[in-house]
Every structure is written in C-alpha cells, then in structure tokens.
Amino acid sequence: MTIGIPFRELPRAHGGPLGVGRLRVDPADFVVEEELGFAPDGSGEHRLLWVRKTDANTEWVARRLAELAGVRTADVGFAGLKDRRAVTSQWFSLPAPKGEMPDWSRLASQGIEVLAVHAHRRKLRRGSLKGNRFCIRVRAFDPQPGQPPESWTTGFQRRLAEIRRRGVPNYFGEQRFGHGGANLNRADALLQGGLSRPNRHQRGIWLSAARSELFNRVLARRVSRGDWDKPVPGDCLNLAGSHSYFCVESVDAELTARCDRFDLHPTGPLWGRGEPPTRGDVQALERETAASLPGWGEGLERFGLEQERRPLRVAVLDLDGTAVSDGLELRFSLPAGAYATAVLRELIDWETGHDGEPSD
C-alpha cells in the first residue's frame, strides 16, 4: 500500500490536461541543459568537465569519469542529479590529473561525451547551480476527445500564456518518492522506529521523501483553495532567487503586486525542528497536514532536521510550445530544485515510452 498521494492525483492549478501523449520514447525526446550561474575560474587544482550523457544517470557517469581519471568517485563533484532516460548536459569536477589529461573519448561508447574541460579552483558542490533548460518532445499526442484541432490549438496557447503569467505549483516530482512510492513506505517505517541502522545515504533519501510528501500535501491544499500563488495573512514569503524569507501578519497591494511580478513567492514547510514560522490559518493548515501522517513531524525532528521553507510556486521561464509532425515540442527553463513534470502536468497527461519510471 502506497502512503503518498499519487503525483497525478495532486490538484492542478490551471485546469485538466489538454490531452495525452507519450514521453521518453527515445532519450532524445527529453533534452536537459544545466545552467551553473557562474563561469569556470580558468585556473586552480580542479577541472570542470562539460559532459553530455545519453540514457545514463549522473552517479553512474561520475563513477566512469573517476575510473578513467584514476581518482576516487568521492572526488568527483556535480551540482545536481539529472535525468537518466534523456540527453542531458551538465558539469562535473575532478582533481587535476598529475600527468596528461585522460582520453575522454574512450567513454563515448557508453553514452558519455566530454565536450569541454576548464581549470577551476574548487570541487563542484551539490546544489551549486542556477537551473536547467528543457526541450521535451511529446509523441503521439491526442487532444481531449471532441475537440477540433483549431479549438485545441487556441486552448493550448491560452494555457501556455496562463502558465507564463502565474507559474505552476512547485510540487516535488514522483521520482522523489521511489518506484511505486517505496521511499515513503521506508520513511514511514524509519520514522515509526521500525527500521534500525540504515546507512546514512538511505536514511537521507527516505527522510527527504517524507519531507517532500508533507510539502506536496500542504501545496495541494493551497492549490485546492486557490491561494498557492498569492500571499495571505500569516504566510512566509520567499525572496525570489534566494533562500531568504520573511513572514507577514497582513497583506497589502504592494505585497500582492510583488508576488504577481514573481519577486516574492508564498512558501510551504520542509518539516523539522521547531515551530513553523507561519502564523494563524496558514500555520494551522501546515500543522493539520503534518498530523495527517502520525509520527512524521516528531520523527523528522528526532532525526535532527531543521525547519526550512520551499516556494509553493515556480516561475516557468521562456516557455514555448509548438505542434510538430508526431506530437508536441515544449521548451522552458526552471530554477534549481523544480521539476519539469510539474510543468507538464499542467498541460497534458502522459504515458512513458519505456520500462521504468521517469526521473528529473
């Protein structure tokens, strides 16, 4: 039995899906390009590698780079995990080799292309990225029954315009929770004291899944009541592009206008120690949501996690969508930590074109 609310059952902000198609029939249907937000230093004891990988996950690529360079896998840095069933370009770092640079072309047969190498002063750390650009092909797209093509096209462009104007709910994607939600089942056992001594990596994955589920449930309630993208009294508002936030007792026209401009975002809880910083009805909603999963709030505090905040809304930049010969093509950019599937679900429903679940 799955504990979490299935991703596809979470409420949508912009209406039902406009049709159904197939995702990831081929890795080239899902193209991702990482944006670090800073340039290589040009000197230093590390090397930044700009790598294009096809149908391979990030950690597996890190191991292959380490093996060829003769360094420990732990010495290889990257800013974020990227899609496996995709063509993705991202940065890796490793200590500068003492001799000649390895022949990176030996990895091409494994779907790994090293496109550029730059000197850099330090190891690349997780989270040190600005965002990602996406180009996604939806194959065999079928509009909702009964819609003439011209009517559907108008509705599609109207939906894109609304997403540009308001953004989308910043849900954690289903891959956060493991195949069939297995990470949540393990998280529940861990938080209830039913698992002893999992390794640190496993524990981190399960606790992160638990916090993500609580966040999604709070966001779902805000979407259902229509204030996921606007400030309400008691909210904590995130300053766009930062981890900073401030709490408000009341809301005026200026705060509302700043939210409309994406300068500010309402936030939801990443549960941990201490009182939620929100006030009034907002805090009550967050506490009620945590209580809906008995033992989770207390368990996350027991494991030493601190209260954090995550924006409820994400701006979708450079969003464009066009019909192509065998479906749709969508292009957009998202900040770090946001999921492409959170955008897709506000437009379409989908089936995956391969065995296994998709990942962002």
The fold-level CATH name of the domain at 164-314 is: Pseudouridine synthase
Radius of gyration using CA atoms only:
21 Å
Describe the main β-sheet briefly: 10 strands, mixed
Number of strands: 16
- The total count of helices amounts to 8
**Helix-strand sequence:** EEEHEEEEHEHHEEHEHHEEEEHE
Shape verdict: globular
| Unreliable parts | 355-360
Task: Give the full name of the CATH homologous superfamily of the domain at 164-314.
Answer: TruD, insertion domain
Give the class-level CATH name of the domain at 164-314: Alpha Beta
Average pLDDT reading? 92
Cα end-to-end separation: 24 Å
Question: Helix amount, in percent?
Answer: 25-40%
Written account of the structure:
This protein is of the alpha+beta class and 360 residues long. Among the domains are: 38-120, 2-Layer Sandwich (Pseudouridine synthase); 164-314, TruD, insertion domain (Pseudouridine synthase), CATH 3.30.2340.10. Helix content is 27%, strand content 27%. It is built from eight helices and 16 strands. The strands form three sheets. Strands 1, 2, 3, 4, 5, 6, 7, 14, 15 and 16 form a ten-stranded mixed beta sheet that branches. Strands 10-9-11-12 form a four-stranded antiparallel beta sheet. The chain has a two-stranded antiparallel ribbon with strand order 8-13. β9 and β10 (245-247) form a beta hairpin. α3 packs across α4 (200-225) and α4 (200-225) crosses α6. Mean pLDDT is 92; it is low at 355-360.
